[in-house]
Write a structure and sequence with these properties.
The chain is of the alpha/beta class and 448 residues long. It folds into three domains: 3-54, no CATH class; 59-190, Leucine Dehydrogenase, chain A, domain 1 (Rossmann fold); 211-372, 3-Layer(aba) Sandwich (Rossmann fold). Helix content is 48%, strand content 15%. The strands form two sheets. Strands 9-8-7-6-10-11-12 form a seven-stranded mixed beta sheet, with helices on both faces. A five-stranded mixed beta sheet has the order 1-2-4-3-5. Strand 1 (59-68) and strand 2 (74-85) form a beta hairpin. The two termini are 23 Å apart.
């Protein structure tokens, strides 16, 4: 059986067994087609039924989350955790609190996490979780009550050597703190390594807040340098204005780029003089406000309703850091038409499959999320290491380790793509590089 026949057979089974789960199906399809040359080269993987196991979660947990709002009304949300693959280490992946969360999205994110975590070179497997709870507009007490209700079920399935959740969309330091505190209350002790993204006073790591955004730019800068360019004097557009976007803007500016736009779910701002990050931080990190408030502080800036129009702006570097599917085929064509040189994903799969094809076919340097935004989970693993040692590294030490990891991810993806005949196709390179490490571990451990 050829690699193509094997992959297409597995994909048909996945579509049949996971009806309606479009996000999960798309994520699997994007990865599996790029693995065809691996199976042609390693027929023993086919005989071992490796893909059938690799694409099926080891465990999928779904649970009810009842909690009481400030008006005394009982609310009921859904909670999820997918423990996808632990061949190279404990399950590791964030928790997302957002109304869009469902089983398909959690499985897609968990599947991507397997490869992303593998690429870091650190011993962590793939998992993901979350709830359709929306923290926006909720009081601190409501968020606390929800987090405690959520953890009252999740705690049964996690642990420092079993499954280590972290933050994601809608889950920041506040939410992690509430969940961590309640986990320890339920367990009757202290287990610092069970959650990452914690506060610095109770086991958190320096640089963890900045890690995904910084790591994204470290990857992008290395990708540009490897092709005779750099971030210096480049015009940059960043979507989003949350944690990832803020620190991508900060590091892109440090490298000499001029970031002219960022967004939130309502619209985007354009500042041709360069985004004033202090203002954005005040709006988003302190006031938890809307990005439109930027206009009150910065004369001459422009605001546009609707967020997708941000990709019509002329730029050299595009860093999508908002959410999945935000760059469609039409947006990708606009970016190419306007001369974009590099696109690197700060969010999880923010570019559709059609958009990715546009970038690759037009020889735009493209850093897929599983490689380019792996800095967050890499720093989470570094936080786990510090927790295990009961020790903390300095900001400079963690930042240097993060930089090294992201540079290594870039060259691992680049070299693997070249080895398999896909030079400068970092989608294929990162998929194959991440898969091979997990596949080798799975083969060594038998059929489990």
């Amino acid at each position: 059986m050829s690699g193509k026949e094997y992959v297409e057979g597995v994909l048909k089974t996945i579509e049949k067994r996971n009806p309606g789960e479009i996000e999960f199906q798309d994520a699997v399809k994007e990865v599996l087609y790029s693995l065809i040359p691996v199976f042609d080269k390693n027929p023993q993987f086919i005989k071992a039924g490796l893909l059938e196991r690799f694409t099926e979660p080891e465990r999928l947990i779904y649970f009810r989350v009842p909690w009481v709002d400030d008006q005394g009304k009982v609310q009921v949300n859904r909670g999820f955790r997918v423990q996808f693959n632990a061949a190279i280490g404990p399950y590791k992946g964030g928790l997302r609190f957002h109304p869009s969360v469902n089983q398909s999205i959690i499985k897609f994110l968990g599947f991507e996490q397997i490869l992303k975590n593998s690429l870091t070179g650190l011993p962590i497997g793939g998992g993901k979780g979350g709830s359709d709870f929306d923290p926006k507009g909720k009081s601190d007490n409501e968020v606390m009550r929800f987090c405690q209700a959520f953890m009252s079920e999740l705690y049964k399935y996690i642990g420092a050597d079993i499954d280590v959740p972290a933050g994601d969309i809608g889950v920041g330091g506040r939410e992690v703190g509430y969940m961590y505190g309640y986990y320890n209350k339920l367990k009757g002790g202290s287990e610092p390594g069970v959650l990452t993204g914690k506060g610095l006073t109770f086991g958190g790591s320096l640089v963890r807040t900045q890690a995904t955004g910084y790591g994204l730019v470290y990857f992008t800068e290395e990708m540009l340098k490897d092709h005779g360019m750099s971030m210096k004097d480049k015009t940059v557009v960043v979507s989003g204005s949350g944690n990832v976007a803020i620190y991508a803007i900060e590091k892109a500016t440090f490298f000499g780029g001029k970031v002219i736009a960022c967004s939130d779910s309502n619209g985007y701002i354009v500042d041709e003089n360069g985004i004033n990050l202090d203002v954005v931080k005040e709006i988003k990190e302190v006031k938890r406000g809307r990005i439109k408030e930027y206009l009150d502080k910065v004369p001459g800036a422009k605001y546009v309703d609707g967020c997708n129009g941000i990709w019509s702006l002329k730029c050299d570097v595009a860093l999508p850091c908002a959410t999945q599917g935000e760059i469609d085929e039409a947006s990708a064509k606009l970016l190419v038409q306007n001369g974009v040189k590099a696109v690197a994903e700060g969010a999880n799969m923010p570019s559709t499959l059609e958009a990715i094809d546009v970038f690759i076919n037009n020889k735009v340097l493209f850093g897929p999320g599983k490689a380019a935004n792996a800095g967050g989970v890499a720093c989470s693993a570094l936080e786990m290491s510090q927790n295990s040692m009961r020790y903390s590294w300095t900001f400079a030490e963690v930042d240097a380790k993060l930089n090294d990891i992201m540079v290594n991810i870039y060259y691992n993806s680049r070299n693997t793509a070249k080895e398999y005949g896909y030079e400068d196709n970092f989608v294929v390179g990162s998929n194959i590089a991440g898969f091979l490490k997990v596949a080798t571990a799975m083969m060594a451990q038998g059929v489990i």
